# Entry
Amino acid sequence: MANMAQAIRMALHYAEENLGLTDVFGEDVGPPLGGVFTCTQGIQSAWNSPLDERGIIGMAIGLALAGQKPCAEIQFCDYIYNTIDLLKIAGNTCWSSNGDWNVPMIVRTPVGSGIRGSIYHSHSFDATATHIPGWKIVMPSTPLDAYGLLLAAVLEDNPVMYLEPKALLRIKGEELIPGEPADDKMLSKMIDAPLGERSKWKPQWPALEKYVVPIGKAKLVREGLHVTVVSWGRTLPLAAKAAKALAENEGIEAEVIDLRTLWPYDWEMVSASIEKTGKVLYVNEDTEVTNFGEHLIRRTIEDHFYKLLAPPRLLAGKFVPGIGLADNLEMASVPQLKDITDAIRALAAEQP
Amino acid sequence: MANMAQAIRMALHYAEENLGLTDVFGEDVGPPLGGVFTCTQGIQSAWNSPLDERGIIGMAIGLALAGQKPCAEIQFCDYIYNTIDLLKIAGNTCWSSNGDWNVPMIVRTPVGSGIRGSIYHSHSFDATATHIPGWKIVMPSTPLDAYGLLLAAVLEDNPVMYLEPKALLRIKGEELIPGEPADDKMLSKMIDAPLGERSKWKPQWPALEKYVVPIGKAKLVREGLHVTVVSWGRTLPLAAKAAKALAENEGIEAEVIDLRTLWPYDWEMVSASIEKTGKVLYVNEDTEVTNFGEHLIRRTIEDHFYKLLAPPRLLAGKFVPGIGLADNLEMASVPQLKDITDAIRALAAEQP
Amino acid sequence: MSRPRLVDRKEEKSSLGSLPAELLIRMHDLMVKARVLEERLIQMYKSGHGYFWIGGPGEEAFNVPLGLLMKKGQGPAYDYLHAHYRQSATLLALGESPIGALRQMKNTATDPYSGGRNFAGHFSKREWNIAPVSSPIEVQYAIAPGTALAQKRFGGDGITIVTGGDAGTAEGDFASCLIWSSRPGNELPILIIVTNNQWGISTAAATQHGEKHISDRGRAFNIRSRTIDGNDPVTSYLELKEAMEYVRKERKPFLLEAMVSRLYGHSSASGANFVGDEPDCIKSFEERLEAEGVLTRAEMDALRKKYTEEIAEMARQVRDEPQPDGASIYDHIYWEKK
Amino acid sequence: MSRPRLVDRKEEKSSLGSLPAELLIRMHDLMVKARVLEERLIQMYKSGHGYFWIGGPGEEAFNVPLGLLMKKGQGPAYDYLHAHYRQSATLLALGESPIGALRQMKNTATDPYSGGRNFAGHFSKREWNIAPVSSPIEVQYAIAPGTALAQKRFGGDGITIVTGGDAGTAEGDFASCLIWSSRPGNELPILIIVTNNQWGISTAAATQHGEKHISDRGRAFNIRSRTIDGNDPVTSYLELKEAMEYVRKERKPFLLEAMVSRLYGHSSASGANFVGDEPDCIKSFEERLEAEGVLTRAEMDALRKKYTEEIAEMARQVRDEPQPDGASIYDHIYWEKK
Ligand SMILES: Cc1ncc(C[n+]2csc(CCOP(=O)(O)OP(=O)(O)O)c2C)c(N)n1
Ligand SMILES: Cc1ncc(C[n+]2csc(CCOP(=O)(O)OP(=O)(O)O)c2C)c(N)n1
Ligand SMILES: [Mg+2]
Ligand SMILES: [Mg+2]
# Structure
């Protein structure tokens, strides 16, 4: 099966061929590199930009205003923080012009920890992104969702922030992308650029099909009765793994939801699950002060307070200025499998 | 009594004379204007900068690294969003260098609604600021606190974000600043620059005294038994007013806390109050998704869940892309007196 | 700041005769109309019919020809304008009615640019490729290369025009615009304009800017660059025409700095009073029109009177129009398919 | 990108004879030491003793003279350096031991620059006014004017030096630096350096930059500006000396662009293999030193061997040093008074 980077590449290819995607651009996005995580290799409309994030976001807004369908990349979300004003403009242009203009652009950016990226290749962007009105924000945790959400993003009329959990970009999926060859070696031969000289290389794209994961729909990853776990991105597979182990070894049945869309999020699914379990744990790796999970806790409190069996919990990144390079530092800063397991276990065990 | 703009000016004067403040700068901060809200009139060390917020924050960091004590102004916090990366650097420099360097700088910026400032003179900065580690963040709601917190900021060894609720800048205080003459007409004659030609004008400063409001200490504005209301900035006096009216007319006794420092905040005082009332309402005017009040709700849930008599509530700005210019739009977007009164009343009345 | 350098047309005043009388009269008409509109907006502010005024009195001699020379329409075949907040004259020259500006001033629900949400002077008109004006200084310079790239790709002769003030060029976005517009082999059809009134609110350009001319910044990027007297409508017309023809044909950037006046100060925040010590482009143009017999004083007075009455009447009409509802804050957060 | 323009010293190679032999030998020594250090860091990365390598092989001819010419010390009387991540040679020339870089590579608790928190090449040394290197490209250009202003005020001859790469000059912060450094009457004592290796990761400068020379951007601001051959240590030394003397004395900015090589590609992310097709400053310097009889091949071989052994020994030592504790993440969020 494809890994997430390949899935993104295939989605971009499908979208430029079939859905009107016009520009895939950013630093090192075009040939020869095709992106620092290979996500844009072989994409026809991919081009390299100057090293200027403000220029990149500005260009995307301008292209969108002129009827193009751009997908801009910020190489690491760690470097997006000088563009927040422009992101706000992309998000407020439709509203400020009272519905005169829309800005159908996509920003893709890798987020999160997991590759020993040190202070500036480990940031999360959940909290900042969800505080900006006017955007839709998605974050896949599987290659298939990555494909389907990217197609949905291209079909959107509004700005979409597409967050790529960098720790998952090289992880292979468990489901085939429609049209993807069953053999991953073959897939790799077809669409991965060769190492070294590649100026004459052209990808051979499989006959991909349209597959859209609607923005705003979460995914029930595992059913359970004792506690609800809501997560997204890097921590989602860890939560699923923790839940599986807890079910097998300790009889704790956690229901795991992959939020997938951070905004507008699928409160219906989350709410129904909390209704059932009475306990909810929100897991993400952004720093824990003014964290998007805290919004979800507030929402939980508003709708479910009197029926909760335990306080809704947040497991998130520590409120420190960065993720340090050394193993111990990274492990201590953001939720790891053990932290998630412990948190689920504790919540399941909690008695008023 | 001095208004908050005058209080800030007096604090800057006191600090440049006595506490080593070296630079008060930003767009239109120096003569002839002395700041768009007059906060820097007559300040010796005030100077005008280029129209470049990134340059302003960068300059402040550089000055602080070189042992100066700068106080930079961003003319409206609405224009700070292209500098978030630099604010993050100011906040992470000590940590990233493992304690080698510190960055003792202050950023002052007016925040919030209340002057029909439309989309770009109405922003709040609470959520974004509190999500950046390494800073201390204060926001006075009275002239005396404005004075005392600014002196504390100048005495700090770390970056301090000093948020000025613009709706309160022209409101007179109810307490004298130590050294301030009792007669405000006289104060105005002494320290307000004349309209029109003022190139030869010099302020006559009163004999100000040192008065420090420690960073991290909240203020109990009103005692009460039924519900705790925690607020700061523009909404704080409204909360106090609502509480007073509810006590007088409806027998609802709300305890009102002015948080004053958003980070690191005075959990001890807030927590003790919640312990007493069992009910808490957090009021602020930043947009309500991924809002700092949601952090305080999470904290409340963590520490008090089983003893709460009602769900902790948030009253904040609506999650819309801006505050529209027309009266109706502004009123509908951010908490007004009536909204706060209604929220306190409803919470006081809430029965499980 | 030194005086403008009139690159081709040297120190002599441009001759009225280089333009047909009809055009001169049309430009004058629009300049007066724009001035009367701005003065009405100021008056509305002063009498409590608006919260804030900012606008373009003192820039008419430049902004009118700009509007006249634009290729008006929707989509990449036409010109895009990424304006700042002093460009009512450009809008009027494009054919816009003044009533829209009055409505925005009064923040009525009928305001065609923002439905009562935004400040005066914050135009938006998709039908004519007028991108929404937003308050943060200089962001339009980061955005404009995007529409220009779409046009480069589309072909034809549509161009992108971006304007802003002098102080704002200190923001990095101005530099970004120069860089993105001059990528080798990917030069963009963009006319980069700076209207230099030598002030940023209360701050004199001379205290913050080491450049002799802002337009000199284009030279390092091999961008054709020029500083002109924007207070002269004939110069402005001719220079804009030349610059626009270059951009339309060559599909390459041009940086044009126009020296202009700021006749009512920065905005209502600084009082919005007539300043008196800066050149008034209408006054000097009228002197020339009269001296050269193109228009008489009486004709010009009548014109001003006509616009004053027309626009006052519009202002009265606007006064009774409804304000937007509070509940409408949730409208248009996302695009509603049309 | 065209070849460097050697403004004063034209096309001829600078003569070794313009510098005393002792200095040539010292520069060579440091260049070799720096190269050996970087090669060791790469080897550590390749053998799993570090997660990421980025550094300066190919910039030694420029970075060594820079370090030698700096006025080393703490506070505004001394030079401030706002460096980027390719400046190990500058640090060594200032007298730093290579072991710090090895410790940072191995992210040990003993890492003197970040305690195991930051990537290789991210130096920080307050004692010598070395501001912490941070990964976001170009922010140092926004920050550096601050230390320069403090120095302008302090007097004396201490200056601020800021360095960065060519691709990064597309960020607005580079423009900000030019603007803030050249405010009329407030010109700053700052040496603004760009080390131009003609690449930003995989992107060739020629595809993104319309400037003939990046240094041309200084001219609009009346900043003295020059592009030099940074692969020649003699040219670098002489040009840096001249530029620094100007900045020290005149208290005004100078923009210096040095053309350099990137001998092991961008970083470990691009493989960190020797590229072979770019000028190697040590190789060419050694040829000249040998030709002119300053050093023999044998002496130079011995020197490299000596450093290889010394640094390998240090790397062995570092290998056994402890990693920071998880609990230490909460240390130094705020300043601890010393
Ligand atoms: C990013 C940003 N910073 C600050 C402001 C506040 N502000 C509004 S206009 C202005 C001065 C603009 O001067 P200039 O660019 O010369 O344009 P002018 O108003 O003179 O036409 C300032 C500082 C703003 N709107 N946006
Ligand atoms: C703001 C920012 N954007 C992107 C990156 C990722 N990045 C690291 S180095 C680099 C290229 C830098 O090129 P240049 O400025 O020429 O310096 P060089 O590495 O060639 O010395 C990029 C894009 C970054 N570190 N910071
Ligand atoms: Mg101006
Ligand atoms: Mg480079």
Remarks:
- The first strand of chain A starts at residue 23 and ends at 26.
- Chain A has two domains: 4-191, 219-349.
- Chain A has a mean pLDDT of 98.
- Residues D 165-167, 197, 199-200 surround magnesium ion (ligand 4) (CB under 6 Å).
